[in-house]
Amino acid sequence: MADAAPRLKSLVEQIVGAPLPVRVRAWDGSEAGPPGAPALVVRNRRALRRLLWKPGELGLARAWVAGDLGIDGDLYTALDLMAGLIWERGEDARTLSQALRDPDVRAAVRGLVKLAGPFPPPAPPREEARRVRGHLHTRRTDKRAISHHYDVGNDFYEIVLGPSMVYSCAYWESPDGTLENAQRDKLELVCRKLDLKPGQRLLDVGCGWGSMAIHAAREHGVSVVGVTLSQEQAAYARKRVADEGLTDRVEIRVQDYRDVADGPYDAISSIGMAEHVGAERYLEYARVLHALLKPGGRLLNHQIARRPEPDESAYSVDAFIDAYVFPDGELAPIGTTVTQLERAGFEVRDVESLREHYGLTLRRWVANLEAEWVRAQALTSPGRARVWRLYMAASALAFEHNRIGVNQVLAVRTPESGASGMPLRARTWGG
What we know:
It contains 17 helices and eleven strands. With 431 residues, the chain is α/β, with parallel strands linked by helices. It has a seven-stranded mixed β-sheet. Strands 2-1-3-4 form a four-stranded mixed β-sheet.
């Protein structure tokens, strides 16, 4: 008799202390759970062994990336339903150690072990980042982390990002607009906030595939230095610059921002890069950029933010993101970011939240990936494609439900005279 799904559902509910909001479909064809709900497909017993060896989000992630777990039905609906068990359980939720004090839970775990079958721990999927001992956010470890995320393959990113090749939150006039127009509008918004003028020098920190550098040089007549730690990004960006006929105005370097020594610049853009800096290095990051600006120069810092923790020392990086997406990446509350920029000497002049815009952007990226799913897997690996699909869909929901946000912070290296160069009514840059 095929009964793995109802047994699995019952055991998991005993362990987590809450009903499963999705259906369970097991390897033997059995199903259990709410009718009409998306199904969590447990394709083999190895999925259970992954969860038993690494209970929680990392075990689930490994099973998903390896293809041992899947979703039948709408991915967003399934993630939304499961968020309460995975991400949003709150302070009253039992930890595993607390749960195991309950004899019934211990019995359920023993039942899960029996259901899982032979018990050597499965090896982590090859897409998992290899951890490096030592301090975080050194030049060596940052380069390794950036390579893990960005050197996946330019052809793969062309599928996900579309023709704009911009890997950060777009700026939408309407949810019905095109991704390309929304990304162009975001680049133009940054340029307007920086008040770029012909002949000025712009430093683009974390320049990606060159889209910001090209837009600023072509549309605003500035000279741009773009820096990235990704060899693949740099090669792609240089070809784009050459194709646009902008090699006399745009230079793309494989260089750590801490090693830029040819300031001062009139303006600096840092779009979707500061998440990689880390709390320990953030003040250094802000001070380096402050020193690279001319007096009166502007910084536009575009960065994802998390909600503050009641106890900030309890903050930990999301296990799935750290292992498979952004190794060593850290998010900070927007208040912390503003404080660090001010400590470095900046005058913060404007903070604009684009939270809803990122939800729209991520859903378009997911749609692009799903539309060319077979090709995307061939360009990287099935596991890597599953990583990107899960992380982008889950991130879209996180932005939509206000679990995380994204902000553009405009700051000035205001000179001693106090003349910031800002207009009295600054918010005229939207066009």
